[in-house]
Every structure is written in structure tokens, then in C-alpha cells.
């Protein structure tokens, strides 16, 4: 799901920005969830069009067709890859479904960066935003109309 930047002697974080998470209830305060507009990095936002990604990333992006599958789904996608990030666009919708950062210089929602210690991520995100951990993965709750969110994967490599 991407490349985690390790933190020497500590726990780092790998981030995957996703479309199609279950949205938080609308009663959540804005500070307790991530708005759709926050789910962006490297100049790319979840839900934007394939054409916008192509313009933004330009000729530097390597483009390839791929299939993403899970227990109960198969999607045809187009992957735009640069040194800093990978953008996955659904062929069905023509919109960004995933952004996978590869460079710790990229600023992520709420100031999170690849390789940041887990304790710092927990300080930046309210407990309600972090949701319930699944092993070493936290699904960060989104509250926008698209129902998007962000997965944080703890990298225990040192």
C-alpha cells in the first residue's frame, strides 16, 4: 500500500488517503473529522478528475492501467506515479480514489507526515478522528459528503 518512511528507534506512520470510507455522522464537529477538502497531498485531492490529475502531475507521471481487488470487489483503475506520490483513479468514475504518498516532505492532512512518530499523530488528531485501530492500522474518519477517509499504518521497522 505504499512505502513507509521509518523513524530510527521509533514508530513511524504510513498514510493512504482513500475515497469510499464510511462517513462520520453529520453531528460530528469539524475538528473531530476530516473534511473532503483536507484529503489532499502533492496538489491532488480525493475525488478530483483524471484530467485534473494529468494536468497537475504532467509528463513526469508514469501511467499504467491496473486492477484493484478485495474480498468482494474488483475495480479497473489508472495509476499515476511520480517520485513523490501515486494517484489511483477509478476508471468507472474517472475520479481519484486513492492517493499514496511516498515522500516524507509531502504535508498530509492536519500536518501529518510519513515517518512521523505515532504519538505525534495521536496528538494532532482527536481520538474521535482516529477511530478504532485494526491491528497496526487506524481508519481516520471523514465527514464530508463523499464519505472519504484516511488509513494510517504504523510502521514498526526501525
3D architecture notes:
This protein is mainly beta and 158 residues long. It contains three helices and ten strands, in the order E-E-E-H-E-E-E-E-H-H-E-E-E. The relative contact order is 0.31.
Give descriptors for this structure.
3 helices, two-stranded antiparallel ribbon, 10 strands, 8-stranded antiparallel beta sheet, mainly beta, disordered N terminus, globular, 158 residues
Layout of strands and helices, then pairs:
Blueprint: E1 12-18, E2 40-41, E3 44-45, H1 50-57, E4 62-69, E5 74-81, E6 85-90, E7 96-101, H2 118-124, H3 127-130, E8 133-134, E9 137-140, E10 149-155
Antiparallel strand pairs: 1-7, 1-10, 2-3, 4-5, 5-6, 6-7, 8-9, 9-10
Amino acid at each position: 500500500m505504499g512505502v513507509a518512511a521509518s523513524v530510527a528507534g521509533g514508530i513511524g506512520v504510513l498514510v493512504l488517503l482513500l475515497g469510499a470510507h464510511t462517513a462520520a455522522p453529520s453531528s460530528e464537529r469539524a475538528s473531530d473529522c476530516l473534511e473532503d477538502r483536507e484529503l489532499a497531498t502533492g496538489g491532488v485531492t480525493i475525488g478530483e478528475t483524471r484530467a485534473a490529475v494529468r494536468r497537475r502531475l504532467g509528463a513526469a507521471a508514469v501511467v499504467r492501467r491496473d486492477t484493484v481487488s478485495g474480498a468482494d470487489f474488483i475495480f479497473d483503475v489508472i495509476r499515476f506515479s511520480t517520485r513523490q506520490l501515486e494517484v489511483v483513479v477509478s476508471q468507472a468514475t474517472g475520479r481519484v480514489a486513492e492517493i499514496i504518498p511516498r515522500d516524507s516532505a509531502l504535508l498530509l492532512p492536519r500536518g501529518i507526515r510519513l515517518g512521523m512518530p505515532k504519538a505525534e499523530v495521536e496528538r494532532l488528531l482527536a481520538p474521535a478522528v482516529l477511530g478504532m485501530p485494526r491491528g497496526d492500522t487506524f481508519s481516520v474518519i471523514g465527514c464530508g459528503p463523499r464519505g472519504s477517509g484516511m488509513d494510517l499504518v504504523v510502521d514498526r521497522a526501525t
